Structure formats: structure tokens, C-alpha cells
Amino acid sequence: MKGFLVVFFTQQNRRYQGKMLGDWVIDLAKDLGLRGATLSTGIEGFGHTGKLHSAHFFEMADEPVEIQLAITEEESDRLFQRLEQEPISLFYIKTPIEIGFVGRGDASDQPTPAVDV
């Protein structure tokens, strides 16, 4: 199936509607019934302004955050239409991809194979 890998970039200290912006995007993805989303934190990065963002032992607020979604074109359309309604600004990358599963059934349904040593 064809779809898109959508990656949003923000920082831990950005908040919207009382939540960290990354968490808000994850909740929005759930509300829209999207296939899944992953929120990851980074160690260090910089944005279009050139300002360095990094995770420090005492201050995690400026830590870079990335939200990744592998979604269909229809899901992408719904997501971006909804985001356009909000007074927020998020940098993103949207790349065409192929989405699918390999193997038989759900991996959680499969027994753990025995390993001979």
C-alpha cells in the first residue's frame, strides 16, 4: 500500500492546550484513528534559526522531539486538514513510502521460536 512517512519536529518545552506539543500531536493521531505514531526524543539538534537544542542533565525542556507517522494518503489529508485549523506552527517532512507487513499474522500471536545452542 502506498502512503507517507510524516515526521514533525518540535521541542520538549513547546506546549499546546495544556500538553507538550508532541503529546498533543500523538493524541490527535489517536483521535483521528490513524494507524500509529511514535514520539522520540533527541539528544541534540538545531532548527532554521540555528539555535542549538539539546538535552541536559538538569534541564530537559529544550530537548528535541520528533513525531513519526506512517499513514495513507487519506489519513495524511485528514491530519493536515485538522492541523491547519489549529493556531500552531510545526515543521514537518512528508515522504512517499510503501506500507505493509511481512510474514504471517500478527507478531504478538506467534510463539517465540526455540533456539538450540
Number of domains: 1
Residue share in helix:
10-25%
Model regions low in confidence, pLDDT < 50 over at least 5 residues? 112-117
**Sequence of secondary-structure elements:** EEEHEEEEHE
Could you say which structural class the secondary elements and strand pairing correspond to? alpha+beta
Quantity of strands, as a count? 8
* Biggest pleated sheet: 4 strands, antiparallel
CATH topology: Alpha-Beta Plaits
Number of contiguous helices: 2
**CATH arch. level architecture:** 2-Layer Sandwich
Which outline best applies?
globular
Architecture overview:
There is one protein chain. With 117 residues, this protein is an alpha+beta fold. It has a single domain, classed as Alpha-Beta Plaits, CATH 3.30.70.120. It is 20% helix and 34% strand. It is built from two helices and eight strands, in the order E-E-E-H-E-E-E-E-H-E. It has helices at residues 21-31, 73-84, and strands spanning 2-11, 15-16, 19-20, 38-41, 44-46, 52-54, 64-71, 91-98. The chain has a four-stranded antiparallel sheet. It has a two-stranded antiparallel sheet with strand order 2-3. A hairpin with a 2-residue loop joins strand 2 and strand 3. The chain starts with a strand and ends in a 19-residue tail after the last strand.
